[in-house]
Amino acid sequence: MKAALSNYRQSPRKVRLIADLIRGRNVNEARVLLAHTPKRASVQMIKLIDSAVANAVNNDKFSEDTLFVKEIRVAEGYTL
């Protein structure tokens, strides 16, 4: 399932460090890693994963245990 985080005001370089950490991992394993990572972007990534899991479970009737992070992209946002 898909979820998006828009207009997050942090450097893409810093957020990509967190994205690379969880790419390809099981959803539960990714949550544990993010909960113990002392980066500001990890809180937003947890929310993003929770949103994608909720979409998959409620809309498409997937089991949460079988889900993993297949793809995560970080693009540059607006600059002041």
List the helices and strands and how they pair.
Elements: H1 12-22, H2 27-35, H3 41-60
Helix pairs in contact: 2-3
The count of β-strands is 0
Query: Percent range for helical residues?
Result: 40-55%
Order of helices and strands: HHH
Q: What is the mean pLDDT?
A: 94
Supply the number of helical segments. Answer: 3
Helix-and-strand structural type: mainly alpha
In whole angstroms, how far apart are the ends? 32 Å
Computed over alpha carbons, the radius of gyration is 13 Å
Low-confidence stretches: none
Strand content: under 5%
Tell me, briefly, the overall form. Answer: globular
Structure description:
This protein is mainly alpha-helical and 80 residues long. 50% of the residues lie in helices and 0% in strands. The protein has helices at residues 12-22, 27-35, 41-60. The relative contact order is 0.25.
